[in-house]
Each structure stands twice: as structure tokens, then as C-alpha cells.
Amino acid sequence: MAEKSNKHGWKALNPNTPEPDPNKREWAAVRRRYEWNESYDEGIAPKDEELEHELFGEENHVLTGHNFSKYEDIKVTVKGSDIKPVESFDEANLHPQMKENVALARYEKPTPVQKWSIPIITEGHDLMACAQTGSGKTAAFLVPILSRLFGKAKKLTAPRPPPGRTRGYKAQPLVLILAPTRELATQIFDECRRFTYRSMLRPCVVYGGADSGPQKVELFKGCDILTATPGRLCDFLDRGIISLARIRYLVIDEADRMLDMGFEDDMRRIVAKSDMEDASRQTLMFSATFPQRIRKLAKDFLQEKHLFLTVGRVGGTTSDITQKIIFCEDSEKRNTLVQLLLTQPPSRTLIFVETKRGADSLDAFLYQQHFPTTSIHGDRTQREREDALLAFKNGRSPILIATAVAARGLDIKNVMHVINYDLCSEIDEYVHRIGRTARVGNQGLATTFYNHANESIAKDLVRLLLECEQEVPDFLQQYTADINLNDDDDDDTYNDNTSYSNHGQQTTTSWDNNNTTQSQGSWNVPASNTPTNNGSSQFKSWETTNNGNNYGGQSQNSWGSPQPPANQAQDSWGSAPSSHNTYPASGQNWSSSPQPPNNNNTYQQNYQQPSAIPPPANQAQDSWAGGPPPSNNNFSMPGQTWSSSPQQPNNNSNNNTYQPNYPQTQAPASYQQPPQSAAPYQQSQPPYQSQPPPQTNSYQQTPPPYQQPSPQGGAGPYMTPQATPQYPPNPQLQYSPQPTLPTQQSQQSGWGAPPAVQNGNGWQ
Ligand SMILES: Nc1ncnc2c1ncn2[C@@H]1O[C@H](COP(=O)(O)OP(=O)(O)OP(=O)(O)O)[C@@H](O)[C@H]1O
């Protein structure tokens, strides 16, 4: 969406960048790559200055940040073999052309994942590697693979067809790189263009949504390194346009996503049912997150003696991202977002929403508010998606609103701020989303709008905040109690137990009618939802569930985490607890709630302990419909009995209150009265609050005047000069103290004050 006008300092960072000419736009697949000529001698192919500038020009690439050296401190583990890491690219024994390309890319030192994966891949091992977002995983596989192939290219590559004689010709790549999104596939293709510069190897990309014609034309010019999204690749395999018979390296990027539901059939088609040979193939998997159940599944694709490399905790994130969580009801999100943008120096900002419609509607809203926005999501045409990304990259639209389609892998210079307008339900997705900022040692800010609908992710989120030494806001403090940061889930037991545990914790406490069960939420799986073995021995996944809800096909719906996503819980897990219900730590009694139990139940420590413990609302709904609680349901603390209710518990569980003066005549004989001494559970018990407690650094009644961000403040070369805001933020809604983005200054001097949360005017 084009910029409307600049009323508040936010404008296109590069306002003069022209909109793409619709007649001249070309697909990413046809971007120029180095074209080897048979007359060249290997090793001394001539330069192509224009292409070299396009591929390696500084303006297009993320440069290392101040904290690059902090990578040295991250713990690395390798399971499977003794490997000696390389400490420098010089030590890595790279092909001279690769050395030169690495230098052109300005890579001075390898990142940890590169230090280890270069020797692992060079020595011929299969690999599953997990390292933080933005830590150079793409080069970690491309550099050693291509370097090894450079010397053998003549021998290994398929002969090119004579021009115009492509009938019956099949592209036969040596390397296949699979990626889950079209944008990521084209980005990896761009990296391939860089690292194959002046070499004999020719990279190509195939991905859905774009014309297949130009992709085919490129394939028929020669394809040695193929990056693909699974759907389009399967299409080309079926049509006999591509053969995988020559594949030497299979790379599965974002492997946890690729092996999850949605891609499973395509992955089987590509790996198991194509002409790709197992014996001559080295398989490499990379991601920043790798839930245990996927690791187990991944073994089907790897040699038994594969290595497992982890840099930091699996699924962890970098401390270079300052993470801020703001309590914000849905109805206040737009308001909050505008104020948040107004209190930040304009800079490249990525806003994540949950739905495609939500993306369109927020895009339109911000545009009305004169913000230079654009959006990317699965319902936009591929042209629109590529244009949106380009506008975001070149600064014409420095605010990009995106769905999960942009969560993984995208590496865009100077994304300074990621805003989770809608928080996702899985922590791994959160890790990928916020990982679009703070790459290779740079700093970034991630702001997340949180409310009761997000409670299913709360504990994982708090764990991540604690692990990265981030501030845990008061309204999330309750989740800190039973988090043990030493409780690492990396233990890769690969056993055949298919129970879905909480990030690898093996204990799954089943849900039962006795709510004194205290573990972090698991449940008895309804019979029709049990994991099924749908084919191959290892491929155990959740199939279509009851109630017509199909949880296949979307990663956020895969049941990797122990709690079903909140909004689906009510559909298919009628008899299971809602993920809104949070249960206190082991050894604790039922902790109390600042508000009466309802569908958004949170149970906070400081609430006065009721004597009888009410069941969470929708548990009650199932177990207690139509009558008083049966005697076998004991919801009380040890040693106590269930207190009675003033009215017959009814089907509408939200109205059920359980108080001691419930007429005994309505209770079955076995139903027990509470002990005389027991205090009743009272609805009016203070401190009832419908909103979380105000923050200590909260809204000031008399805020200081709006401070224009300092002119030096800026996100680097793409910063706009600051204009006097003609549209200052509403002081009633202003953060205090002012939050700051990581400007060059603050990168050196540490962070500015975090965003505060104010409690007036419905702002929470
Ligand atoms: N050794 C290095 N020195 C400097 N920059 C590097 C180095 N290795 C990679 N980079 C740069 O770091 C950025 C991030 O790399 P890359 O996109 O491969 O990260 P990633 O680990 O795959 O991230 P994600 O998990 O988000 O996909 C890229 O711009 C890349 O060019």
C-alpha cells in the first residue's frame, strides 16, 4: 500500500523509491546469476562487476552487529561423533572461489553453527542442527556443500541441453534445498546466487504462486543447486521436469516446520517416492526450533549415525532481542499499536497478526492513520507478496503487517522492531517471529500484546523471558513459580513413546476429575484424537480430530505443545480442560484467582485461598452438568471436602458457584458438607480485578511532553530525518517513560527505559 502522507514523522524511509512498474516486474526465479561459459577455465572465471555489486553490495545485506563476539559464549553440543570445529574460514580448507565469495560477503569469522557444521558436512555426516535465529545457518550449509562441489563440478553436473533442444530434458540438481515458504525459498536462492558466484554451478528456484514458465526456462538452462517449496517441486517431479537422481545433498531448512503436518505428504513424495537415492545422499536439517517429537520423526530421513548439533538451548532465542510484553485487550490493540508506533523513532517494523483478514484490516487501518504500511499473507497473490516484501526491504513501506508466512527465515536488514499484535499460540512460532530482528549480533526490540486469550503460551513465554534475562511483567509473574531454567529439554532420547510432553519433559500427568493434579497441563486424549500410526513406522501424528476439526496442515495447530491452542480447545476438546486454565505448580494447593473462575481462568498466588476449590469453568461444565457434584469428584484440597453451592449446579458452568449454604437436600447422600471452619469461596473476595494490577512504572498522570526522538537516533542508513510531529500522541495514552528502539547510540550505551504500561482510559 502506498504512503498516504507524513503527519507524524513516519514516512517511507526511502520515499523516492518508485513503485514497481507492473510491466517490467520479473519473478524472483529469473534473477540474474553467474553464467558459466564453457570457455572459462575453472578457478579463473571473469568477474561480473554489475552482478557482483547486486549480490554483495552492502546496502542489501545485514551486517554484523556489536554483539557478534557474544556468540563465543554460547554453549555448543554435538551428539554422535567427535568433531573439531574450525575457528576461522581460513582453517576450513575451503575452495579458493568459496574463500573469495565468503570475503566478498564480508564474513570475517564463522558463527558457532558454521564453525561446527562446516567440518561436519565436509566429513560427510548427516546432520540435524539447531541454532538461534539470525545466526547464519544458511551459510552453515551452503558454504561447505558448495565448496566441496566446486572442485568436482565438471564431473558431477548434468550436461546442459543445447539451447532450444529442451524436449524431454530433465533438470538434475546435485543439491536440493527445501523451504516452507516461497519468500524463504527465494531468499535462499539469493544466497545460492552469492555463493555460486564465478563458479560452474548454476542455482535455480521453484516455488508456487508464480508462473511456472519462467521457472522451467531457468531449469532448462541448467540447474545444479535447486531451492524449492515442496508443492511446486512435487508438481515438477510429477510432470517429469525435474529428476532427483543426481542429488548428493538434501537440505531441509526450517526442518521442524517441514516435517510437521501440512508438508508431510509432499515430503514423503520427495524423499521416499522420488528417484533420489538414499545411499549417495547426505541429508542436513536446520532450524532454530526442533520440538522433540519432530526430532524423532526426522530420524526417518537421516542416516542412523547422524549428528545432532545444538547451539544454545533448542528453541531458545538471542538475548540481543529486548522483549516487552504489554497487557492489552483485543479492543484496545489498535489504539495501543498507534501509540506504540508514535512513541518509537520511525524505523523498519514488522507487525504479526494471526489471520489474513486481520492483516488486511490492520493494514487498512494504519494506512488511514497515515502510516506507510503494506502487508503479506497467504491470500495475497504472489506478485503482491513479492511487491510487499520489496517495498518493506527498500523502505518504501517500512511497516509490514504479516501473518505466520513471514515468521520464519526472512533476513531483512534493519528490522528494528517486531510487534506481536496477535500473540501466537506456540512458543516456537514466537521465537521465529521475534527472530526477524536482532540478527548476527545486532540488537532489536520485540513488543508483544498479551491478554487472557494468550494464557496457553504464558508459561513458555515466561520461561523464555527469564532465560534471556528479560523483564517479566507483573501480570505474568504467577508463571515464574514452577519454572526451572536448568530443566533443559535437549535430552534427545528418541524413544518410541509418542506421548506429547511439555517440551520434552517426560512426565505427562493426565487430566482427571481431581483437580489437585498439579502438573503443567496435559489431559486424557479423547479416544478419537489419539495419535495414530498413519503409515511409516515413525510417522505418528494427529489426524483429523472429531467434531470435524482438521488440525492437519497448519503448524500452529500441530499438537507439539501440551496444550491445545485456546480457540480450538472448545471445539474438539470438549471434555478436556481449556488451555485458558492454568494450574499451579506441583506441591501447591490450588492457587486462587483475582477473579472468579471463568473461561479465562488465571489463578494467582496472592489471592486469598478459598477453602473449597472450585473447578475451572468448563471442567465443571462437563463433569457437573445437571446436578451437584458426584461423590467421586473431589475438587478440594487434601483433607478438605467440596463446599456446596447455593444453587444447583447447572449446565451453564460459568454460572456455577460453590458456596457453603447449598441446601443439603439437593445433594446426594454421599455429598459432603464442607467443614464448619472452612471459609466460603466468595465472589467478592478482594482483590478481584478484571484487569491485571497496574505496573510499577505505569502511566503518569502528568506525563512529560512528547519527546521527539533524538536526531541521532536511528536505525542505520535507512533512517528518515525526523520531522516535527504534527500529530503528537495523545498524552493520555502515552508511555512513560518513553521506550526506545536500539539506535546506534543505544546499541553502545545499553537500552533505554522499557515501555511502561499505563492503566487509565481503558489502556491496560
Ligand atoms: N559468518 C558470518 N559473518 C557475518 N555475517 C554472517 C555470517 N554468517 C551469516 N551472516 C549473515 O547473517 C544473516 C543471518 O543469516 P541466516 O539468514 O542464515 O540466519 P539463520 O540462522 O538461518 O536465521 P533464521 O533462523 O531466522 O532462518 C545473513 O544476513 C547472513 O548473510
UniProtKB/TrEMBL annotation:
Its EC number is 3.6.4.13. It is an enzyme of class 3 (hydrolase). Residues 118-308 form the Helicase ATP-binding domain. Residues 503-545, 566-587, 632-642 have a biased composition (Polar residues). It catalyses: ATP + H2O = ADP + phosphate + H(+). Signal peptide: none annotated. One of its GO terms (molecular function) is RNA helicase activity. Belongs to the DEAD box helicase family. DDX3/DED1 subfamily. This is ATP-dependent RNA helicase DED1. It comes from Ambispora leptoticha. The lineage of its organism: Eukaryota, Fungi, Fungi incertae sedis, Mucoromycota, Glomeromycotina.
